[in-house]
Amino acid sequence: MSVVNEEKIDLDAVPEIVLDSEQETQLAEVLARPYHREVVRDEDGWVARVVEWSGCIGSGDTATEALGDLEEAMSVWAASCLVDGVPVPEPIREDACSGKLVLRIPRSLHRDAARLAEREHVSLNQYISNALARVVGGGFQVQSRRHRLVSGMVVTGVRFKTKRTPLSGAPLS
To answer: Using an 8 Å Cβ cutoff, are 23 and 79 in contact?
Structure first.
């Protein structure tokens, strides 16, 4: 049994995905690509995900079990895409990111960020880099129950919670 939108479902009752020989070949090619996998520990065990595939998640009591569950979820996720004619995202190329980014933001946000950077005695570039690093690299904590992928659907209850602290690390008053 697993949970989808707070409803219990029998995973054995989920329709089987049937691929033709061309789709089976495509599936093998997709699964052989160098996708980025991320494994983190949460209060219920371990959660693994494919960074490039939104919603493709595996879980387990150990990191190894979570990665094994993820491999199964990847097969279902990619097969669902192939059957539905949805393109499977390509792996992120490491060399595609130079570290330089041109960004358009509202003037008011630019002004507010510049003021905060000045207050913390850092450049605007450093301030924005730190802010982005906190959000992307760990400022958010995932609180979750067990995860499972069923025919392209994520089966879970996930909430995001962030700690409010200024970039300097000093506590908020």
So the answer is: yes
User: How would you class 32 by CB atoms within 10 Å of its CB: exposed for 0-12, middle for 13-18, buried for 19 or more?
Assistant: exposed
Q: What is the dihedral of CA 108, 114, 118, 119, to 10 degrees?
A: 40
Q: Which two tokens stand for residue 73?
A: 């979820």
The residues that bridge with 49 in the sheet, in sequence order, are 38, 57
Q: What is the C-alpha to C-alpha distance for residues 147 and 107, in angstroms, rounded to an integer? A: 40
* pTM (predicted TM-score): 0.51
Please check whether the domain covering 2-110+142-162 is classified as CATH 1.10.150.390. Answer: no
CA distance 136 to 1: 33
Domain spans of the chain, in order of start: 2-110+142-162
Residue 104: which residues within 8 A CB-CB, separation 6 or more?
A: none
Burial class (CB in 10 A: 0-12, 13-18, 19+), 4: middle
Nearest to 44 by CA among 137, 135, 157, 138: 157
Tell me the pLDDT tens digit for each residue of 66-113: 999 999 889 888 888 888 888 888 898 877 677 788 889 999 999 999
Locate 146 and state its tokens: 């067990």
